[in-house]
Amino acid sequence: MSLERRHDREFVRTFFTSPTAVEGEDDSAKMIRRAVQLRGMQAPDVWVPDNEDATAPSMRDEGAENIISVISEHGAEFPGEIHPRIVWHRDSPATRYQCFEHLLEIADPEKDAIEHIDGFVIPEVGDIDDWKKADEFITIVETEHGLAEGSLAMSVIVESAEAELALADLREEMGKPSNNLERLFLLVDGEVDYTKDMRAITPTGGLPPWEELRHNTSRGASAAGLIAIDGPYDDIRDIEGYHERMTDNQAKGMLGIWSLTPGQVKEANKSPLPPKTGSWLLDVNGREVELDADDGRYVYDGDDVTLETTGDDRYRLLIGGDERELDGDELTEELLDLASYIPSLNDIVDSMEEFEAAKEAGKGAIAMKRSATLLVDSVEVEISNDRMWDEATYQAAQTPITLFQDVYENRPDQHEELEELYGKDVVDRAMVVG
Amino acid sequence: MSLERRHDREFVRTFFTSPTAVEGEDDSAKMIRRAVQLRGMQAPDVWVPDNEDATAPSMRDEGAENIISVISEHGAEFPGEIHPRIVWHRDSPATRYQCFEHLLEIADPEKDAIEHIDGFVIPEVGDIDDWKKADEFITIVETEHGLAEGSLAMSVIVESAEAELALADLREEMGKPSNNLERLFLLVDGEVDYTKDMRAITPTGGLPPWEELRHNTSRGASAAGLIAIDGPYDDIRDIEGYHERMTDNQAKGMLGIWSLTPGQVKEANKSPLPPKTGSWLLDVNGREVELDADDGRYVYDGDDVTLETTGDDRYRLLIGGDERELDGDELTEELLDLASYIPSLNDIVDSMEEFEAAKEAGKGAIAMKRSATLLVDSVEVEISNDRMWDEATYQAAQTPITLFQDVYENRPDQHEELEELYGKDVVDRAMVVG
Amino acid sequence: MSLERRHDREFVRTFFTSPTAVEGEDDSAKMIRRAVQLRGMQAPDVWVPDNEDATAPSMRDEGAENIISVISEHGAEFPGEIHPRIVWHRDSPATRYQCFEHLLEIADPEKDAIEHIDGFVIPEVGDIDDWKKADEFITIVETEHGLAEGSLAMSVIVESAEAELALADLREEMGKPSNNLERLFLLVDGEVDYTKDMRAITPTGGLPPWEELRHNTSRGASAAGLIAIDGPYDDIRDIEGYHERMTDNQAKGMLGIWSLTPGQVKEANKSPLPPKTGSWLLDVNGREVELDADDGRYVYDGDDVTLETTGDDRYRLLIGGDERELDGDELTEELLDLASYIPSLNDIVDSMEEFEAAKEAGKGAIAMKRSATLLVDSVEVEISNDRMWDEATYQAAQTPITLFQDVYENRPDQHEELEELYGKDVVDRAMVVG
To answer: Closest partner residue to B218 among C162, C196, C198, by Cβ?
Structure first.
């Protein structure tokens, strides 16, 4: 039997925090009231009314009341899951007790909020034994309020070395009879506090990349059936940087990210979904340059590659100071090595359907062909790329499709935007493949 | 007492899989029959008749029979070790039972194959407790068939987050009286399935680099006296890419790699051996460029470095848009910083002999000198590089020599090619040094 | 209660080893006699008279005597801590017994050295159980010689895969009643021996980067309240390379490094301290280029960025072969994205004071503004960078200040140099902020 957490959503793209009380505002619940009304691509998979860092320490009791008031009123219509973040600290029993009190209050069924709340987010956890303390408080609260044991999800912010180490213990600890850690849901990296806890320094004060932390979080999530989420990207205007971070995360198996604004939510909701149209890349001195599609051809118009015809079936190719004389076959081979293709949703569905048909016909592996005409300095080159697909390739290719299906099933409020983006036909085929 | 696995080979460069049954072929054992007859540099250190992914699910009983038939006939002459891969899955008891049945069948001494088989490869393992289940089946099979307990090696494919975590437990678990995990031999990364298990996505569908997985596998192997092997490189035509991957692996202590063709086996067998001739590299804007040896001088003839004489002992050096005026000493210093040397087998043997002589004469550390004439834009510069060698340097330098010796001792079928490559004299000296 | 080691120093920048006996020298204690008399920036935070690798095996008894003689004479005046390194090996009981004998000898109060010694450095440790053996010897020595249990610090060199794995066990093991592992102090990476133990190979024989080892050491230190130190950088002349290594380490939370010479000590002592003056960087094709400060403006004078005015509020910007036409606002935005600022000690103190004042006035978050005039190809551009500071930003920014304060308190011999470098006013403010 393989390990399974208790909660439903298989993928979470977005973890959107909003302050629950803001000093000096007339209506201190304004920001969570705005957040709970988000819909479609601007609404996150997981919404986190944040009664920890985003709310000043002196405002947290008011924050807890705002959570109750706003969720009891609007929670039923919110399209994603709702997981308030409450206070916690591995080094402070007083903060942990405050957590318990807020839990008891927010989860009180008479206050009509808990029926719309899927779980809670616990920040600043330490060793696995510290995680168990939070789990135990939630268990007590469930019992006190007549909720089923384990029904409330628990997500944690990994922002200390101890918590990173605990990621390796999850699988072993989650099955034990004296805890309810099967309630675990998201493992969220918190790089600002982690940087402090690790005492790291960078010259500009920017955050270190923390490659290993992200790997370990993703691995811990995979081993224990949980979901890994990267921390906030705080240069909100830097959309390109946010995209690069998400692409890097996705290659680590971390498909979700923290969002600080509805604009970031929108980018993050789309990021792990395949693009509408495929594109060809050319590796130019180690950088991947996207070729412009022009009337069925893919055009490189930069200065760093030069290609000319020097005679019958003879070419001169210059890349990065490296000049070569090639015949047509050699040129094709060379460009094939440098080119790569980013498949669209439609391409992936096509390939999966083709492989499924082959499998039914009794074949274990087939070659998938992808052709294109590249245009470099007015020289046209036909390339054709064969990739062998077997069961393992098929299953690895399936991840973005499974994610797409999970999104489509769980987020009816995004149907319209998805169909607008991809076309209804592709969406329908994507929902039945795999 | 330090931990030791039970099996002989200290280094494994190549892990070559071949299908054991191919649908629609007249003689479905053709590919393993061809593989078992490979010799010399085309023959792997470890040959893996593959009855898992490379063989269609419906053909696996036939695959097991082919393994028995081909190995009983040709196994005695095969120059490397033979480790068939059989089916297994951490999440499927039915697949594990199939593993047990194939084991029982292939290991039956009356079928005359097991005497040529060194062990088995178990894919898709999970936690360490899952590894123990496979170990237990092998123990039962050994007892049933009158083989010594622990005599069959067990190698695993690490292709899940759980298995990666298990790498940290090996050292502690291997000594325990209720298992025979000392039979462990190779830890092999399987990046395609690992990517699926981690739910990672890349835009092109290519594999992520999985730096941490490879480090953790290498570390696990080092801690438990085992051997780490990287997974398959499936762009078979891309020899340069295969070499880069191997160089990267070697810097992680992972000296072996999976091969899919005899051509890849040949490249992989040579890769961790030192080169025949030494070469000088120049760091040009962060890229290492190999200098052309020309009549005792090393020539840079690219466009990215410009050097000219501007007066008596005055030079102008231009690298990467950075122009400097230098005198002769400064120029030498600058080029010395940019240059590095890749020693040949002969160079390494020389240095080790020199250090051994110094040690016998009572010295703990000596300077190793390496000089060269560089030629950049027709300006000649003499550089001379001193490196301090102590016992630790000596021992770290010894790794490629120990590997060479291990290869030479275990693979008589490669003697001729090695002596052709390096010359008999260097080979003889390499065999006695250290 | 959070875990605390027993020893005082919160930060260690430098770990300086010197041979304790040199073959053939008239006065074999000459080098440690010179080392113990270092003062100010040339004196390390931790000085390690090295009776292991830096001293020939045949000289180690003499080495131990030299340690006693030099420290009893000069130890009282040495400005840093003193931690001799003695022999140890996880695989050799004979070496471990030699360790015990040297410990007994050096720690004998009648020899007048131990009162100036803060602890010992144990190389070549293995599993955590091996660390406990060394801990136990120190405990026995403490008892034998009437020293308080746990009063001698123990630092280890992490130079094997087993020891790297042990880093994850520290937090759990340190609290146990049957050991005194709370005496642990420094976790020092030893990359030369680690490379040998991992059997890693690089073409030139240079050391691999070992990113994961350094992360795991830093994480282990953070989780257990210890201090992480990187291994030696043996190209002593390569100051730039040493600095790059330290910057890389600091981003991992590893703020200290091994030094082999007083020159390296000086560089390493300064490295984690903020600079005297701030500077602006421009990201040019992925490289960070420092801009020249000139009369209040920051000037880019390289060839890789071209900027010109093409009309009223119209500009042409060319970076890395990428040409864009921009208006003034777009140009500002673009340069703002490419520019980053390295704050000086004074800048950091300013920002912290500003945030502290805001906090007292009841605000949880404020925008920190940083403006500059950039000059690119004679076009002037004003940029202004807002960064949001909250409690977490504040605390992460505090690390270099806390380090500065720790240095200032513990190293009176460096006061003069620090005040010369930064000015007395900034030093005074830095000592009270936070």
So the answer is: C198
